[in-house]
Amino acid sequence: MVIHEVDKNRREHNPWMWIPSLCAAEEIPSAVVTYVALIMFLQFGASESLASLYSALLFLPWMVKSFLYTSARRVESVRWRIIVVELLMFLILMLTAVTLSNTIVRHWHLFSLMLVLSLLCAWHELFSRLYYSRMLHPRQQRLFRATKTSSSFASLVLTYGLLIILAGFFEVFFRSYKKAWAMESSIVAGVFLVAAVINALVLRPSHKSVSASRANAPSNKEEAMKTIDKLTSLPHAVRLLTSLFFLLLPQALIFNTRVFFLLSPESEGGLGCSLQDVGFAQGAVGVLAFAVGTTFGRYLMRRRTQETFHVLSAAILLLPPAAYMLMALWPQPDNLFAICTMTFFAQFCLGFGLNACSAYVKYFSRARYTYTTNYLYIPIVASMMLIPMSVSGWLCMQMGYQMYFTLCALSIPIVWMIVWLCSPNAVLFKRTC
Hints:
By secondary structure, this protein is mostly helical. It has helices at about 1-10, 15-45, 50-55, 60-65, 70-75, 80-100, 105-135, 140-145, 145-175, 175-200, 210-235, 235-255, 255-265, 275-300, 305-330, 335-355, 355-365, 380-400, 400-410, 410-420, 425-430. It is globular.
């Protein structure tokens, strides 16, 4: 009886109505935490070293959320939990806007708010994944995968691109960066509220039988324990984690410093870009390039061969650091077209090469994250990037942009050798095929 009602609810629930709004509610605050918060930390007095540390710590909720997935599966209905979490996220966004409009605001105030928002984002993504899997059959999930991906990237462009451009415009208009960011946060909260209201109206209850939940509880607990233990119990686990760490090391080192490089004045070795330039180059052009690169890389990774893995890993290791090295050695601060071109190239290679991480993730999670788009949110990958991201700002300030990006690019042969030596490719691809 319960199964019949769930199937009927699935058939009557039109995915075209709720997938875009649910993805928007998921990606808009995530973009604030992942990208926009870094710029806010800088403008409100945090040093590059401290801003990098703050940005890295915001990934902590994403590192632990998947260990809570088994417990969340036992929830009978996730609709009201999504609504409650979205309400709390809206309140945090509005509280951020009020805090930014205050005359006395410190960067650690922003970090506290962003950490709470990051925790809510992790829970929202967890419940959204549950809702998505319960309301759509596996065949429907494959059918609407493109809709889900395009909605996510569109929300990311809206938040990281357009709204940062507006923040730069408001800074000129109000002649105050505090009022500009307060207005920008209010707009983000308003856009998010629209998506949250739509979700409250169109999402339907997704009930799970209590008896079935209790029946599956022992197996779920056992699965959770295996998930925790397999990082150390699987063969070659230490070697693979070492290989993944060095594969992501160059990208982790430039993840925050590329923004510092764009915003820093020319006298300090940066490009002196305005917020509008950063929003257009990184938010609009960069996100578009990342989406295109991710799509091509996912298509290529379907071959599941060692040659494909080497092509993807070479793309993420070599090309993004090389692009920023060229921008640092031959800066063109007045040429926005050149900045956008190099940014497009670097972000395309990043999205293209990140698909190599799927081989590692599927090995450890038994294909649990097959449909994950942004691999930075996978706990295994995020944990590999945490330490390099934390120290990247301090290292960059000690060396200077030219030497920092040059050393990142010149260290690639050594990093590539470590990745090649630590990756037992035969075992890795045997497990993922």
